[in-house]
Amino acid sequence: MIDVKFPIKVKDLAKVVDQANVNPHTMTHNELISEFMINARPSYVPPTDDRSYLAWDKLMPVVEAINDYTNEEDEPIYSVEIDPSYVMIRRGLHTAIVVDRPQADSYRGMIGIAVVEFARRFHQYGLSL
């Protein structure tokens, strides 16, 4: 637990943010994805080696977990749409993330960028990304 006295001074804010570790840019892609996977599937055991989630055998279970993530009423929250020219992750009817060909030169690249961005936003904003 972080002890914060209000009003907080601007010079002390950086220290509080560091203590809370709320900056998603300090985590690696693998750490962000592992955090989401553990949240989505409590029995999930993250890989112990340094293999990247961007390998097909690690990437597609993450896509499945995003598609399978549900709310309290067991309704799906997110959906991943993979097209030859883009990858889109939606939250309900709203588009949350779009990655297209100029951003990556392969399906795996587009899916990887979208999944990492999803994990980063999930870490930062929770379900409301």
Descriptive report:
The chain is of the alpha+beta class and 129 residues long. It has one domain (29-128). It has helices spanning 10-20, 29-40, 56-68, 107-125, and strands at 78-82, 86-91, 94-100. Helix 3 (56-68) crosses helix 4. The chain is globular and about 35 Å long. Residues 1-6 have low confidence and may be disordered.
Please give a quick description of this structure.
The two termini are 25 Å apart. The protein has 4 helices and 3 strands; from the N terminus they run αααβββα. The chain has 129 residues and is of the alpha+beta class.
Descriptors for this entry?
3 strands, 14% strand, alpha+beta, 4 helices, 129 residues
The counted number of beta strands is: 3
- The backbone outline, from C-alpha atoms, is globular
Task: Give the oligomer, counting copies of the same chain as homo and different chains as hetero.
Answer: single chain
Give the SSE string. HHHEEEH
Taking all Cα atoms into account, the compactness measure Rg is 17 Å
Whole-number tally of structural domains: 1
Within the largest sheet, what's the order of strands?
1-2-3
Strand content: 5-15%
Q: How many strands, what sense, and barrel or not for the largest sheet?
A: 3 strands, antiparallel
Individual helix count: 4
**Would you tell me the structural class of the helices and strands?**
alpha+beta
Low-confidence regions: 1-6
Helix content range: 40-55%
Give the mean pLDDT: 79
**End-to-end span in angstroms?**
25 Å
